[in-house]
């Protein structure tokens, strides 16, 4: 009786469910371990993890709801999601709630969230529909490339104004979806060339126009205030860096007010000159410095869950740099296991896609998996020093609010597709 009840609730691909379960368990353990700055302000060790666990339970509820929706209804939602995405993206651009120097959040009926989280899923949904509707025996029709560009580029540009890393994330995801969807290689090659030119132009603009004044180290009060603000928003929590502490005091100077922050991050990432031990200042770029210390002190098996030292020095240990805490506590083995879970998620989604009789659910499952795994890769690369600070959380592990729930919905979409996926008929039938 119990098995039947659980089977009716937890429908869909069992491997996806296992990956989801392990990520949630790791999330609860590591958020509890890394929330020292939050427990200090709340006065209790349990409040942050209880809130986070409640969000995961809510996410599980929405996952179950979503997996019971037939895939064809996702198509019906597309026009409404497009309209909703544009409304909220324009809202956040002109009247968004600011944290540090970035306006990425909106308040709607008492709920604060990032419209980019909805827009990401919308663009994946739109791209999947276009690719599925333009398939020929030779691959996607050449018009698919232009339709995808017209549908997604305006959203990407609106996101890029305040959240360049998220714009890059969804751009990479859409490009990979077009590659999987067999968009003509000539068009993809031309797009890559255009992207290289555009990146060169943007970097040159940032370096020429942006200011790279050396900021003063943020005070404990400034860090605490920013952490409070970021915690209250509970979505993609940004890293408290020194340049952000300074930029937070500045007024927004139009749509290019983020250039100063981007320039500081580029310069600090590129400048890898050795620093004598006596000149090391942990108050400068404290997040990156303490993240490196956490990784360097981890070893093969780590310090053990709950034994992190650097969590007390990383103000965003529970979000942007939670992977560094995972490495410190669980070692190389734990870091590999977490990365392996995302790899399994990607490959399992690919297997589900190959079993779909129709193209739309296949492209949708792959698109969502590529988006989640690419975001995870962004976060991991930042934590280990292979990429500049981006502010991207680790999906389903970092502490979050509506972003966590939306990621759970994405898992629900994959599970919904897996329920209806059937083995493709072979030529012999």
Textual characterization of the structure:
Residues 217-255 and 424-429 have low confidence and may be disordered. This protein has helices at residues 2-9, 14-34, 36-42, 46-67, 72-95, 115-133, 142-162, 164-180, 185-209, 220-233, 242-247, 259-270, 286-296, 322-354, 359-383, 402-420, and strands spanning 97-99, 102-108, 111-113, 135-136, 139-140. Helix 5 (72-95) packs across helix 6 and helix 6 (115-133) packs across helix 15. The protein has one domain (9-241, 284-420). The strands form 2 sheets. A 3-stranded antiparallel beta sheet has the order 1-2-3, sandwiched between helices. A two-stranded antiparallel sheet has the order 4-5. The longest helix has 33 residues, at 322-354. It has 16 helices and 5 strands. Strand 2 and strand 3 (111-113) form a beta hairpin. The chain has 429 residues and is mainly alpha-helical. It is globular, with a radius of gyration of 22 Å.
Helix content range: 55-70%
Oligomer: single chain
Derived from helix and strand composition plus strand pairing, the structural class reads mainly alpha
Mean pLDDT value: 79
Radius of gyration: 22 Å
| Silhouette | globular
The order of strands across the largest sheet is 1-2-3
Number of strands: 5
What is the H/E string? HHHHHEEEHEEHHHHHHHHHH
Supply the key terms:
429 residues, mainly alpha, two-stranded antiparallel ribbon, 16 helices, 66% helix, globular, disordered C terminus
In short:
The chain is built from 16 helices and 5 strands.
């Amino acid at each position: 009786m119990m098995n039947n009840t659980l089977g009716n609730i937890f429908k869909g691909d069992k491997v996806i469910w296992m990956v989801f379960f392990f990520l949630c368990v790791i999330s609860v353990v590591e958020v509890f371990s890394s929330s020292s700055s939050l427990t200090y302000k709340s006065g209790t060790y349990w409040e942050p993890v209880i809130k986070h666990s409640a969000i995961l339970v809510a996410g599980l509820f929405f996952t179950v709801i979503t997996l019971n929706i037939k895939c064809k209804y996702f198509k019906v939602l597309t026009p409404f999601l497009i309209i909703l995405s544009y409304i909220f993206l324009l809202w956040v651009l002109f009247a968004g709630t600011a944290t540090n120097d970035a306006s990425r959040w909106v308040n709607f009926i008492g709920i604060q969230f990032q419209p980019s989280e909805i827009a990401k899923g919308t663009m994946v949904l739109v791209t999947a529909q276009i690719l599925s509707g333009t398939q020929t025996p030779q691959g996607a029709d050449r018009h698919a490339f232009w339709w995808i560009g017209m549908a997604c580029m305006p959203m990407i540009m609106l996101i890029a104004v305040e959240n360049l890393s998220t714009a890059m994330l969804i751009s990479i995801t859409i490009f990979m979806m077009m590659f999987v969807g067999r968009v003509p290689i000539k068009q993809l090659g031309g797009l890559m060339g255009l992207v290289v030119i555009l990146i060169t132009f943007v970097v040159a603009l940032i370096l020429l126009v942006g200011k790279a004044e050396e900021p003063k180290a943020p005070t404990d009060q400034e860090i605490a205030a920013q952490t409070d603000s970021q915690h209250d928003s509970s979505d993609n929590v940004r890293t408290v860096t020194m340049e952000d502490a300074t930029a937070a005091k500045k007024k927004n100077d139009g749509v290019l007010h983020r250039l100063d922050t981007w320039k500081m991050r580029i310069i600090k990432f590129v400048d890898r000159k050795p620093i004598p031990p006596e000149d090391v200042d942990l108050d400068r770029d404290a997040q990156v410095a303490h993240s490196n210390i956490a990784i360097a002190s981890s070893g093969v098996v780590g310090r053990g869950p709950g034994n992190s030292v650097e969590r007390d020095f990383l103000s965003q240990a529970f979000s942007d740099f939670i992977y560094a805490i995972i490495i410190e506590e669980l070692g190389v083995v734990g870091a590999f296991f977490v990365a392996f879970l995302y790899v399994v998620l990607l490959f399992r989604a690919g297997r589900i896609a190959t079993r779909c009789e129709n193209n739309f659910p296949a492209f949708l499952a792959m698109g969502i998996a590529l988006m989640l795994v690419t975001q995870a890769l962004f976060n991991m690369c930042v934590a280990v020093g292979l990429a500049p600070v981006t502010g991207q959380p680790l999906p389903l592990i970092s502490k979050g609010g509506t972003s966590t729930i939306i990621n759970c919905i994405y898992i629900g979409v994959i599970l919904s597709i897996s329920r209806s996926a059937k083995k493709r008929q072979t030529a012999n039938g």
